[in-house]
Design a protein that fits this description.
The chain is mainly beta. The chain is built from two helices and 17 strands.
Length: 254
């Protein structure tokens, strides 16, 4: 995992993308039709690890391209959200039932399993993102992905996912005021030929806690215009991507 301090958090950040590696002969970007479903910001409960949607709409969008799906911030300098201290729910004595917020991005992909599925195919998620704040401390405690295969009736077949933080161990760390950029990567495989699968449901979850701030202090999170991309690539390219110097981790979900 790369963490680097930057003067202006939204500018010059590494690209971020989710790549679906397709090993079948003739694999191409149009084998999966990606869809961006939306984004919400949720307050994270200390009890039961549950989430409550906040009355705040993140500034982020998804655009379908010939290569796949691009997701990026649409606020000032590609910001996704900007909070002042008095509006941030945090795990303090004033809000003891919560321990921060979570940005959740979600959507689907549809495909012909006979053409796309192969045990060696991988979903590679590479992040480039940034945050900036002027007081207090930020704990970037969760970065997770999940991918679930479903059949034509909407029944779940298998789910995989990766992450740092929460039950996977420490998150990305606690930070002093300033601007920071982050680069990391996960890789997941379904590991089988699930011929009845027609849909992938995907989610990206990013969790933050901001403490020690005053009511007028500010905290912003950015996804630059290089974006989070969902793309189908041939299997040999997966090996090339693994050499970019970012971390890779996989975890099978139950």
């Amino acid at each position: 995992m790369k963490t680097y301090r930057i003067d202006r958090p939204a500018m010059g950040l590494a690209a971020a993308f989710v790549a679906i590696s397709a090993g079948a002969a003739g694999a191409s970007a149009d084998l999966i039709e990606w869809s961006y479903g939306g984004a919400v910001i949720e307050a994270v409960s200390n009890e039961g690890n549950s989430w409550v949607t906040m009355d705040y709409q993140p500034e982020v969008t998804g655009t379908v391209t010939d290569a796949g799906l691009k997701i990026f911030g649409t606020g000032n300098e590609f910001s996704v959200f900007s909070f002042v201290g008095e509006n941030f729910i945090t795990g303090t004595s004033t809000d003891p039932e919560y321990r921060g917020v979570q940005l959740r991005l979600f959507g689907t992909g549809t495909f012909d399993a006979a053409n796309w599925q192969h045990p060696g195919n991988a979903i590679r998620t590479v992040f480039g993102m940034g945050l900036a704040f002027d007081a207090g401390a930020v704990d970037f405690y969760r970065v997770e992905t999940s991918f679930t295969l479903k059949d034509a009736q909407g029944n779940g077949i298998i789910g995989v996912g990766s992450g740092v933080g929460t039950d996977q161990g420490p998150g990305l760390g606690k930070f002093e005021p300033g601007g920071y950029g982050f680069g990391l990567a996960f890789e997941d495989r379904f590991g089988g030929d699930y011929s009845s699968a027609v849909t992938i449901e995907w989610e990206v979850r990013l969790g933050f806690d901001w403490t020690g701030q005053q009511s007028t202090d500010s905290f912003s999170f950015f996804i630059p215009d290089q974006s989070i991309d969902l793309t189908v690539i041939p299997a040999p390219a997966t090996l090339g991507l693994a050499a970019v110097g970012l971390i890779a981790a996989g975890r099978r979900r139950r």
